[in-house]
Design brief:
- This protein is mostly helical and about 80 residues long.
- The protein folds into 2 domains: about 45 residues; about 35 residues.
- Helix content is about 90%, strand content about 0%.
- It has 3 helices and no strands.
- Helix 1 runs antiparallel to helix 2.
- The longest helix has about 35 residues.
Length: about 80
């Protein structure tokens, strides 16, 4: 409830300052919402889209390496059992 009060207080300040035109009001509302979004993202310590893509690529490479190693171990173990 306090967060909604904060947004309402900011909107009230805008009306007090005389921002009457719709364009100014809409840009101010968007700026407020963007700043709140950025605050939440910063508090949650989320990664950016680019960082997430880089991490996904690294994971794919590691998964491929694991599959290759597992295949090599299976072929070596089969050869060892036959001997």
């Amino acid at each position: 409830m306090s967060k909604s009060k904060l947004v309402i207080d900011k909107l009230a300040k805008l009306f007090e300052q005389g921002l009457i035109s719709y364009k100014d009001l809409s840009t101010e509302i968007l700026n407020i919402l963007r700043s709140k979004r950025d605050e939440i993202i910063f508090k949650m310590k989320l990664t950016s889209k680019e960082e997430t893509e880089i991490q996904n690529k690294r994971i794919e490479i590691l998964e491929r390496k694991i599959i290759k190693i597992e295949k090599n171990l299976k072929t070596k173990s089969k050869k060892g059992k036959k001997s």
